[in-house]
């Protein structure tokens, strides 16, 4: 999914066009000082695909999917829970995608990441600031 307002190449009737993609969903980080307000708002907006998200708490290097495999349903609206995001998996995926080579002009490359031209060096230094560190616990080895 592209961020709201991003230009993207799309095919309509076999013709490659550029257009603005509408968001497929919106997510609000429910961590922080206003968790219950975010939960209440997301519960009220359930049908509009506005979801409260929360980063997973993991120990021992376990990895969960970035997005849950089970889609939220209207049945779960009564017992509202935020969507748990696999933060470590997302970081691994982004780190992997940053290594994909620039595709040739006119060619597509799955998972290649495009960035707006106006992003400065500070943006990229923050994006690359975290390092994956190998940890050993007993006989288990994992990256954090």
Task: Please describe what this structure looks like.
- The chain contains three helices and seven strands.
- It has 144 residues and is of the alpha/beta class.
- The protein has a domain at 36-100 and 114-143.
- Strands 3-4-5 form a three-stranded parallel β-sheet, with helices on one face. A two-stranded antiparallel ribbon has the order 1-2.
- Strand 6 (134-137) and strand 7 (140-143) form a beta hairpin.
- It is globular and about 45 Å long.
- The two termini are 26 Å apart.
For the termini, the CA-CA separation is 26 Å
| Beta-strand content | 15-25%
Major beta-sheet overview = 3 strands, parallel
Mass-distribution shape: globular
What is the rounded Rg?
Answer: 19 Å
Mean pLDDT across all amino acids: 77
Say how many strands there are.
Answer: 7
Spatial arrangement of strands, main beta sheet:
3-4-5
Content-based structural category: alpha/beta
Helical stretch tally: 3
User: Would you identify the regions where 5 or more consecutive residues have pLDDT less than 50?
Assistant: 1-15
Oligomer state equals single chain
| H/E element sequence | EEEHEEHHEE
Helix content: 10-25%
Short characterization:
This protein has 144 residues and is of the alpha/beta class. It is 19% helix and 23% strand.
Mind sketching the topology for me?
Layout: E1 7-12, E2 15-20, E3 26-29, H1 35-44, E4 50-55, E5 83-85, H2 87-97, H3 121-127, E6 134-137, E7 140-143
Parallel strand pairs: 3-4, 4-5
Antiparallel strand pairs: 1-2, 6-7
């Amino acid at each position: 999914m592209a961020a709201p307002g991003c230009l993207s190449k799309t095919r309509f009737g076999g013709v490659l066009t550029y257009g603005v993609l509408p968001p497929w969903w919106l997510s609000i980080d429910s961590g922080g000082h206003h968790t219950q307000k975010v939960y209440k708002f997301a519960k009220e907006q359930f049908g509009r695909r506005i979801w409260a998200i929360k980063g997973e708490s993991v120990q021992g290097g376990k990895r969960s999917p970035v997005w849950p495999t089970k889609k939220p349903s209207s049945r779960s609206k009564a017992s509202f829970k935020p969507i748990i995001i696999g933060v470590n998996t997302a970081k691994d995926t982004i780190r992997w995608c940053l290594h994909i080579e620039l595709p040739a002009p006119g060619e597509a490359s799955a998972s290649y990441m495009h960035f707006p031209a106006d992003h400065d060096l500070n943006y990229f230094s923050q994006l690359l600031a975290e390092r994956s560190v190998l940890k050993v616990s007993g006989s288990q080895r994992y990256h954090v």
